[in-house]
Amino acid sequence: MRFIYHHPVPDFYQTENPNCPKNFISDDFLKEFSDIAIASQFAGLSYSRLSDEFRTEWNIDWDNIIILKYFMSDDILKMEPSKEKCRLEDAEFQEFGQKTFALADILRQNGFRADLINPLDDRVSLRAIAMQSNDAVITRSNMCMFREGLNLGLFMIQTSIENLPFKMKNDMLWVRDYCSTCGVCIDRCPENAFDGDGKFIRKACTAHRHGCSQCILFCPFYKRGYDKVKKRYDRMVKK
Ligand code: SF4
Ligand code: SF4
């Protein structure tokens, strides 16, 4: 599911992919690359190694993915759903898309294959790729949440680099249990986009059409942050 008010990000590549791309990145250069991404206002990076089953299921031949996460602006999120809000969200999306092309260029200039995955391509789900990182979880309100926060936009680069620091185990799955005890998003949803069992009803949600973000704004993960909610959860399960 994607924000239908987003427009395609024009191609900003300045550099061609290398003919014989390198497969291994040094720790120093990966750190330098991450530092450049953070200096470009990205919130953080994650990495997905796509399994053979995943690639077969989605009919793709990429395997190594760099996920670049950016915070959707608080000021925009707090606006009422409107055309102007959608326009501003798209402007933010375009800005970070442009920055992602620049980061892909840095990888190309250093000998790696690097291609932006088109976030508007409906043939593959960025959320499904994100879950392959073992660094994210889908909340009850159907948001793809990483530790950095709930209000994240994503861009992804598929690359020849084989030795990215892939996580082998997802330690965020407790969030599903926490969500089952919470339900604030259900109570706050103006569109009743949850069924009687608290399951998200995609077609009733207006986030992707009109920019609703009520469930983000009232979610404990947005209001308190991941670590504080985790501490609260740990206290809850100890009782
Ligand atoms: S409001 Fe509560 S139930 Fe909904 S996503 Fe956030 S933590 Fe989960
Ligand atoms: S309609 Fe709004 S509050 Fe309801 S689930 Fe969608 S984004 Fe969240």
What report would you give on this structure?
The protein is an alpha+beta fold. The protein has a single domain, classed as NADH Oxidase. The protein is built from eleven helices and six strands. A four-stranded antiparallel sheet has the order 1-2-6-3. A two-stranded antiparallel sheet has the order 4-5. A hairpin with a 5-residue loop joins strand 4 and strand 5. The radius of gyration is 18 Å and the shape is globular. The protein starts with 26 loop residues before the first helix and ends with a helix. The mean pLDDT is 94. The structure holds iron/sulfur cluster (2 copies). The site of one iron/sulfur cluster has 12 residues, from helix 6, helix 7 and helix 10.
Would you summarize the structure shown here?
The protein is an alpha+beta fold and 239 residues long.
How are the elements arranged and paired?
Elements: H1 27-39, E1 44-49, H2 52-58, E2 64-71, H3 74-77, H4 83-109, E3 114-116, H5 126-131, E4 136-138, E5 144-146, E6 152-159, H6 174-181, H7 184-188, H8 207-210, H9 214-218, H10 220-223, H11 226-238
Antiparallel strand pairs: 1-2, 2-6, 3-6, 4-5
Bound molecules: iron/sulfur cluster (2 copies).
One iron/sulfur cluster (SF4) binds at residues 139-141, 178-179, 182-185, 219-221.
Which characteristics define this entry?
239 residues, alpha+beta, NADH Oxidase, 4-stranded antiparallel beta sheet, two-stranded antiparallel sheet, 11 helices, globular, binds iron/sulfur cluster
Strand order of the largest sheet: 1-2-6-3
Helix content: 40-55%
CATH architecture: 3-Layer(aba) Sandwich
Residue share in β-strands: 5-15%
Tally of DSSP helical segments: 11
CATH class reads Alpha Beta
- Rounded radius of gyration (Å): 18 Å
Distance from N terminus to C terminus (CA atoms, Å) equals: 38 Å
Which molecules other than protein and nucleic acid are bound?
iron/sulfur cluster
Question: Unreliable segments (pLDDT under 50, ≥5 consecutive)?
Answer: none
The count of domains is 1
Q: Quick one: how many beta strands?
A: 6
The whole-number mean of residue pLDDT values reads 94
Class derived from helix and strand content: alpha+beta
SSE order, as H and E?
HEHEHHEHEEEHHHHHH
Question: How would you describe the shape?
Answer: globular
